Amino acid sequence: MRILHTSDWHLGRSFHRASLLDAQAECLDRLVATVREREVDAVAVAGDVYDRAVPPLSAVELFDRALHRLAAVGVPTVMISGNHDSARRLGVGAGLMGRAGIHLRTDPAECGTPVVLRDDHGDVAFYGLPYLEPALVKDVFKAERAGHEAVLTAAMDRVRADLATRPDSTRSVVLAHAFVAGGAPSESERDITVGGVAAVPAGVFDGVDYTALGHLHGSQAVTERVRYSGSPLAYSFSEVDHRKTMWLIDLDATGEIAAERIDFPVPRPLARLRGRLDTLLDDPALARHEEAWVEATLTDPVRPDEPMARLMARFPHTLSLVLDPERGPEDPLASYAQRLKGRDDQQIAEDFVAHVRGGHGADDRERTVLRGAFDHVRVDDGVREVNR
């Protein structure tokens, strides 16, 4: 069976102030064309179809057109909700859509109920594990703890239990939306940390032939059988070195796989430039970036006059301007920026506690309280997204 694995469309998202709607439409054109040209048997969409729980009408229309085109091709599509989607909204009409070959899996309770497709070698069971917010689904799975590993393990136990009832020749595919250890993140994924832990081990998915992951935006193989397709477009400048692709997976009669990357169209290249303003404006080596979307980090010790206007005279598609002036090691601002660089919310909060106490940091109990507060805020945000 030939499977096309994609995820993280984030329909409705912009890149800084630049609309990506036309570029997203081109990506979906490429997807449908690939389904036709490469004789794909099934499409797997591993979550984050939309960029937010209540997407703009233009994004909904784009999604609707994509579903109609996939249904018209006659190739089944299995799709799950991600942490950016409203599972309830995305799942509306799932029963009717299933009759047209569009199988939406947005209910955590249905993790152990597969979409069963057939090829010349027998059955392939597709299990959809939508994004599982631990605090919201812990009771559904009777998990011991409200953590990502606990709820995913419980969901996969249901998958393996169902597989055990099927003929030995049944091959299996799992769609999941999660942060799996070994994957490389970017700056454009929403933080899903709970209890100080976001990642789950790849071994959670042992026992299935292929795991089609969503959430991380870089296309990558965590293991031979556990892969991220990545997003079809770059959604932050941290993705400047990404190659945006889909995975074309051939699953043979014995469950062995062969994988090929299929490129998405690139609407405009990205460039991250750094240096003093005069250097960026005069350096002939930077001519190749003049039509790119640019993030410019200026290191001038004193802020130049009208830096954005002057940059756009040479780089008309400059979208982001960062001021990072060169400072001596004795400069207190340089020291503060260095301390914050690369630190998460928990670490910054603990640093603040140590600062106001004259160097006495948080103890284990206080760190637990801080972590619980951040988790509570994160879960509340998730609940609001779901209920909007």
Automatic annotation (TrEMBL):
It comes from the Bacteria. InterPro entries: Calcineurin-like_PHP (IPR004843), DNA_Repair-Maintenance_Comp (IPR050535), Metallo-depent_PP-like (IPR029052), Mre11_N (IPR041796), SbcD (IPR004593), SbcD_C (IPR026843). Residues 1-217 form the Calcineurin-like phosphoesterase domain. The keyword Nuclease applies. One of its GO terms (molecular function) is exonuclease activity. It holds the Pfam family Metallophos. Gene3D superfamilies: 3.60.21.10. Residues 267-355 form the Nuclease SbcCD subunit D C-terminal domain. Keywords: DNA recombination, DNA replication, Endonuclease, Exonuclease, Hydrolase, Nuclease. The keyword Methyltransferase does not apply. Heterodimer of SbcC and SbcD. Belongs to the SbcD family. SbcCD cleaves DNA hairpin structures. These structures can inhibit DNA replication and are intermediates in certain DNA recombination reactions. The complex acts as a 3'->5' double strand exonuclease that can open hairpins. It also has a 5' single-strand endonuclease activity. This is Nuclease SbcCD subunit D. It comes from Streptomyces sp. 900116325.
